[in-house]
Structure formats: C-alpha cells, structure tokens
Amino acid sequence: MSTSWDFHEGDEIVPGLAAMRLLGGGSSYEAYLAFDDHFYSPVVVKVVRPNLTEDRQTIRGLQREVEILKLLNHPVIVRGFHADPTGARPLMVLESLDGPRLSSLIRRHGPLPLQQLMPLAVELCSAAHYLRQMDIVHLDIKPSNIIMGAPAKLIDLSVARSSDAAAALTDPIGTDAYMSPEQCLPKPGRSPTFATDIWGIGVTLFHAAAGYRPFDKGVKDEDAPAAEQWPQLEVAPYELPKFVPDVVGKLIYACLDPDPTQRPTPIELAELVSPVMEALPKPRLSGFKISAT
C-alpha cells in the first residue's frame, strides 16, 4: 500500500476540505495546506498516511493529540479546529500559520540575532508555563516545531503526554538530537517531566544562537551504543560561539543541566531573559528623529 495520499491542488481530502499543496510530514502523517469550506479559509490538514489507517498505535496517537489540543488555547501554541480520527482518512484540522520554521531560518541565514532570540525565549517560556498549568509535557520542542511569527507558534503535539503518562514512559521518545537524558533512557524515578520541555527549549535556543546543535546529531541504528545515538548522555554540550554574550550562554546552559531538578522553571527562565532583553538596543523605524513642534 502507498505511503502517500499524493493529493494535488483541488483534490478532495474529505468532503469540505480541498488540498492546495503538500507542506511536509513525518513517518505517520502527511500535512497539507487545504481550503476548508466551513471556515472559507486555508487550514492545515494533518492526515494519517494511507498505509497506517488501520494501525492502532498511530490512530491512538492521533486521538491523543486531538484530545490534548481540545484542552489548549494559548497565543504561542497552534490551535486545533476539528478532527475525524476514526474515518477512512483519519485526520485533524489545524490553523494555518504564516511564517517559516525556525529550523529553516537557521539553515538559510545562520544564528538568530539577539533581538529575535530573546523574544523567542520568552514566548517559549510562556508556552511551557501554560502547558505545565494544563498538566501537559510537549516532549518534542525543537526548531522544526516552531513557526516564526509575531508571536512564534509551537506546533506538533503528536507525542505530548499528561505528566502521569510521561512519567510512565519506558521507551525513548522525541527527536534524538533534542532529547533530554530522561527521554533517551526513561526509567522509574528518571522519566520525562515538565523539566524535559525546558531541556527542549535550551537545545532550541542553543541551536538558534550558535547555528549548530549542542550535541552531535546521533545515528538511527537501534543497535548503536547509547553514547553514539545520544551523546548528550555522555558528554557536555559544545561551547557557544564567542559572539554569544556570557549571560545568554549561562541561561541556555542552565536549561541543559543533566539533572532535571536543577533546570529552571519557565518563569525562572523568563526572569533570566528579561534583563537581557531590556539591555538590547531599542529598534528604530528609520534614521530620522521625529519631534513635535
């Protein structure tokens, strides 16, 4: 069976949703920009790949994401509109966001300037604080899951869990290069918690500040030693470039403490970022000074 729906512009995904173009996807899903007749507006449709429509684990994952998004309403988190997780084409409909992924910006233009990096840090802290209040751990905060806009938006809650469900995990979960030590090898008393998302923020900010990740990418070979697949278990993060101010490096490294209990909370991290933002040069619209007469 095909792994792609191969929808083209104008194709009906389901009644009321017409494909516009493929946006991307992962191992279980494809994401399409589509036109929603009900909203009379573009939306993003996340649809399970055709070879997995009968896969119980995939459908459970989609249903879990649908239920989590029903709980959430925050300026920095993508909104879910409606879903059909048990239909012939299991799917969910999300808001369409304008702006590039943070990963694309880094790849094309290199490190973010502090005038972008520090507001992004505060916005991610805001999202992480809210998720904590809603008892949700995202588990996959990374540059490709952040749409840059005003404000930035955190997307893809496909592996998100309640804190109890996260604590019960016994298998690795997340994206190798951005996973915390407790995500790589979860075990009783050392499983993902809210602090896991702070690690994700730290790796994301490091990548955005430096233009490279704090640990090697790792390998996909399941038989590889853990130190090769997840070097963050064995080694300290790389040094940040000299152009990154020490105060910024200090707050990023605080997020990458291997001990989850030593990482700052979202509010503590935001309070570390605030004075850095205040010290930045204020933006000007032009070289002219306008004064009243």
Short précis:
By secondary structure, the chain is an alpha+beta fold. Helix content is 33%, strand content 16%. The relative contact order is 0.11.
Question: How do the strands and helices of this protein lay out in sequence?
Answer:
Blueprint: E1 12-14, E2 17-25, E3 29-36, E4 41-48, H1 56-71, E5 80-84, E6 91-95, H2 102-109, H3 114-133, E7 136-137, E8 146-147, E9 153-154, E10 161-162, H4 163-167, H5 181-184, H6 194-210, H7 226-229, H8 246-255, H9 266-279
Helix pairs in contact: 3-6, 3-9, 6-8, 8-9
Structural summary, described in words:
The protein has 293 residues and is an alpha+beta fold. The chain folds into two domains: 12-95, Phosphorylase Kinase, domain 1; 102-279, Transferase(Phosphotransferase), domain 1 (Orthogonal Bundle). It is built from nine helices and ten strands. The protein has helices at residues 56-71, 102-109, 114-133, 163-167, 181-184, 194-210, 226-229, 246-255, 266-279, and strands at residues 12-14, 17-25, 29-36, 41-48, 80-84, 91-95, 136-137, 146-147, 153-154, 161-162. The strands form three sheets. Strands 1-2-3-4-6-5 form a six-stranded antiparallel sheet, covered by helices on one side. Helix 3 (114-133) packs antiparallel against helix 9 (266-279). The protein is globular. Residues 218-225 and 288-293 have low confidence and may be disordered.
Individual helix count: 9
Report, as a whole number of angstroms, the end-to-end distance.
74 Å
Question: On the 0-100 scale, what is the average pLDDT?
Answer: 91
Number of domains: 2
- CATH top level of the largest domain? Mainly Alpha
Helix content: 25-40%
Q: Which architecture of the largest domain per CATH?
A: Orthogonal Bundle
Oligomeric state: single chain
The helix/strand order is EEEEHEEHHEEEEHHHHHH
Overall morphology: globular
**Main β-sheet description:** 6 strands, antiparallel
Please report the total strand number as a whole number: 10
CATH H-level superfamily of the largest domain: Transferase(Phosphotransferase) domain 1
CATH topology of the largest domain: the name is Transferase(Phosphotransferase), domain 1
Estimated share of beta-strand residues? 15-25%
Question: What order do the strands of the largest sheet run in, or round the barrel if closed?
Answer: 1-2-3-4-6-5
How does the helix and strand content classify structurally? alpha+beta
Point out poorly predicted stretches: 218-225, 288-293
Radius of gyration: 20 Å
